[in-house]
Structures are given as structure tokens and as C-alpha cells.
Amino acid sequence: MLHITPMSRRRWRIAAIACALPVAMLLAGCGKKQAEQAVVGQVIAHVGPDDVTQQELDNELRLANVPADKRSDPILKAALSRIVERKYLVQQAVAAKLDREPTVHLDLLRSREQILAGAFVQRDLSSKMSAVSKNEIDSYVQGHPKQFDQRELFQVDQISFTSPKDVEALAAATKDFKSLDQVEAKLNEMNIKFSRGTATLDSATMPAEMLKVLDARKPDDIYFIRSRGTASFFKVTSVDQKPLTTDQANEFAKRELRVDIGRKGAEAISKSALADAKFEGNYARIMTATAPAPATPPPGTDGGATAAPEAIPAPGTEGAALPGATPATETPAGETQKEQPKN
Asked: How wide is the angle at C-alpha 336 spanned by C-alphas 334 and 340, nearest 5°?
């Protein structure tokens, strides 16, 4: 049984948060009467003193990712109804003077900052991606053969279940097992309900260190992975060679470069922001304190454990941690998973 401890790798998530209600409340609470606000675009509905424009409806559909050819009457009705309900609720909130409450006011400011920050990051990323050359794409493909020309699909047999309270006891009890039949017997003994099936792991979306572990596997090696509330044992049954076509490789390389550019951009923004900031009082000490040392590995990972920079998803699950890792209670902000290339 191999137990592997991951080290989390943050990914920059680029998303302008569509907090439509707070934004509407912000517009309503800027100190001007709603009737005095300028209306831009064709008016298609009225909600008391407020107008609804075609531009607002188009933007609602954009945020809902509804393409132009899918905008049927029922979809338009649902979207317009949301706008009407939102404006009505804003009017009620302003009438109740909720926009003057300190916490609501702070939430409005935060929503505005998030939307503007997201818009800037998106524009910056789009500008950098437009400058990516074919040579850079080709260089990325050549530098990551296991993702492209030498891509492999690992077929696995897996057992999945809800993590028990004492998952470390389970890991310790199964650490010397050589077959999933033994795992089944132990789970039955512990009255843990499970399901057994097959799945596929893709070398294109797998951390290099984890791929090395699987490439060096022995025929009887079993892996144990867990995530928030779930866990799985799996064993590699076969490996298929599945290189990407040229078009697939180019698209996948662009996505990976976009992620890499976004991550580097996030790091640069964070450094610039912190360098430009001045902290007062006790926060000056907090913000300049040295980061704590890494936590001691959990039980079952000592002695020969292989470290990986990032967890691979458990077969049939999302965001699973690798063997021996303490399950996360929340996905770190900005962290995303790689999108698997199309077969």
C-alpha cells in the first residue's frame, strides 16, 4: 500500500463575481434618487420607478452563459423575471434603509472591488494570451511529452466510499494489503459501505511526481486517496498509449499556458499589492511575520512516502487528496483543476 502526501499548488481563478443584487443596491444607494438615474438602451419593462433595458437583459444572459441561438422565449422570460424580481427587492431594501447599514455598505463596496479587480485581471490575461506565439505553444508541447506525444491513460479498478471518522485507522489497517479483495473484506468488517468500479487517470492532467510514482509501480501496488468526505482505493490494471493529435495538443497547450500565465500574473499582482501597501499597528507585525514551517506528515506517511505537488482526482471524484493527506475543508481560493483533453 502506497501512501502519498500532496503539497497544494494554487491556481489562479479568474472570475468576475456576478453579484447582481449587491450591484443593483449599490446603484440604488449612491445618494441619488432612482428616478434620476440615467437609462441606457431600449426600455423593455418597468418596475415601479425603475426601467429595465435590453442591455440589462443581454448582460443577464451573458452572465448565465446563454448563447444567442439558445435564447428561447422561456429562457428570456426566466431571465427577465430575475431582473424584475431583483429590482423590486432593491426598491424594498432601499425603502427599508438597508443600504445605510454598515455591513451592507461594506458588502456593496466589496462587490464593486471584486468586479473591477476581476475585470482588470481578465483583460490583462487576454492581452497576454493574445501575444502567445506558435513557437511558445510548440515549445510547451515538446517540453511536456507525457501530456502530449507520450500521453498515457491509466485504467484503474477502484473502491470508493464515504470517509469514516477514523480514516487513519483504516489506512494503517490496509497499508500492507496487496489486493482490492482484501480491502473489500476489511471494509465489510468495519461496516463501511462502498462501491466498486473502474475509472481512468490521464497522464496529461497528472502532476509529474505522481506520474513517476505510477510509472514505478509494482503489480500488487494499491493506492489510497481521499478528499472532502470521500475516499478511494485503486489499483492500476492497464495502461493505454493515447497521444494527442496536433489540433488537440495545440488547444490543450493553450489552456495550460493560460493557467501558467494566470498563476504567474497572480503572483506578480500579489507581490506588487503587498509592496505598495502600508500596514498599521499590530497588522504590520502580522503581515511581515515568517510563514510557519510545514506541518508534520500525518500518521501513515512516514518512512519512504513519496511527495507530490498536487493531488490527482480520485477516480470518479473531484479534488481528491493523495494518500495520507489530511482532507481539506475548503478549496483554496483561486485553485482549479486541469481540464482533461478530449480523447
From this structure: 160
Q: DSSP string spanning 6-52?
A: E-------------HHHHHHHHHTSSS-GGGSPP-S-EEEEETTEEE
Both 176 and 234 in one domain: the answer is yes
Q: Are residues 282 and 238 in the same domain?
A: no
Q: Which domain holds residue 123?
A: 20-129
CB neighbour burial string for 297-327, b if at least 16 within 10 angstroms, e if fewer: bbebbeeebbebebbbbbbbbebbbbbbbee
Residues 150 and 222 in one domain: yes
- Residue 158 Rama label (left phi>0; alpha psi -120 to 50; beta): beta
* 146-189 tens-digit pLDDT: 999 999 999 999 999 998 888 888 888 898 899 999 999 999 99
Q: How many domains does the chain have?
A: 3
pLDDT, average across residues 209-217: 88
Q: How far apart are CA 144 and CA 252, in angstroms?
A: 11
Q: Do residues 40 and 75 share a domain? A: yes
β-strand 223-226 against 230-241: which pairing, if any?
Answer: antiparallel
What mean pLDDT, rounded, does the chain reach? 78
86 part of a folded domain = yes
Q: Collect all residues with Cβ–Cβ distance below 8 Å to 35 and sequence separation of at least 6.
A: 49
CB contact at 8 A, 151 and 243: yes
Take residue 326 and report the three cell numbers written for it. 489530511
Question: What is the tally of helices (H) and strands (E) in the chain?
Answer: 10, 8
Question: How many other C-beta atoms can be found within 10 angstroms of the C-beta atom of residue 227?
Answer: 21
The CB density around residue 112, as the number of other CB atoms within 10 Å, is 14
C-alpha cell at 212: 513517476
Report the alpha-carbon distance of residue 122 to residue 67 in Å, rounded: 20
- Which residues, other chains included, contact 82 with Cβ-Cβ below 8 Å and sequence gap of 6+? 60
Alpha-carbon span 236 to 221, nearest angstrom? 8
Q: Do 300 and 174 belong together in one domain?
A: yes
Do residues 109 and 235 both lie within one domain? no
Residues 6+ apart with CB under 8 A from 116: none
